[in-house]
Design brief:
The chain has helices at about 55-60, 120-125; strands at about 5-10, 20-25, 40-45, 55, 70-75, 80-90, 100-110, 115-120, 125-130, 135-145. It has 2 helices and 10 strands; from the N terminus they run E-E-E-E-H-E-E-E-E-H-E-E. With about 160 residues, it is mostly beta strands. The strands form 2 sheets. The protein has a 6-stranded mixed barrel. Strands 1-10-9 form a 3-stranded antiparallel beta sheet, with no helix packed on it.
Length: about 160
Amino acid sequence: MPKAQYRHAQAELPGRGATILVDVGLPPIKVLPSTMQPQRHKTAIIDTSSELSWVDGPILKALGLTPSIVDVVQTHFGTVETGIFSVAMTVHFDDTPFFIPVIQVCAGQMREVDYKVVLGRNVLRYGVLNYQGSVGTWTLDFADTFTVRGAKDIDF
């Protein structure tokens, strides 16, 4: 049985919380038109209270995506009706990126904050998050669990 490869991120907690860089693009089953490029190196904040991940609406629009469904979801600010989109996501770690070929995200409006993606439990379930607020650090480890094409196979 092959040994799992792990992706590891570790950082100090800035005032806003645990953040990491991600790329957001189209799932491998969709063809990316030459006029639309993946949205690279967007700051994502980790939010263990959010069931789904969120992506800033203009990023989804730049990819030419339309929602697969519209649903009512619960947020910190109450319930909102929003589009649910299927995207591919690459999470950047200290050693190698972790590629998620298809993940559902909600469209958000993140104009007033310096992050453009919220990583919810639908992404975090693939890893182990160790959040040590008392000392101001966090770590996130992901095992390479996907059996579909990995990041090295797709020019994302």
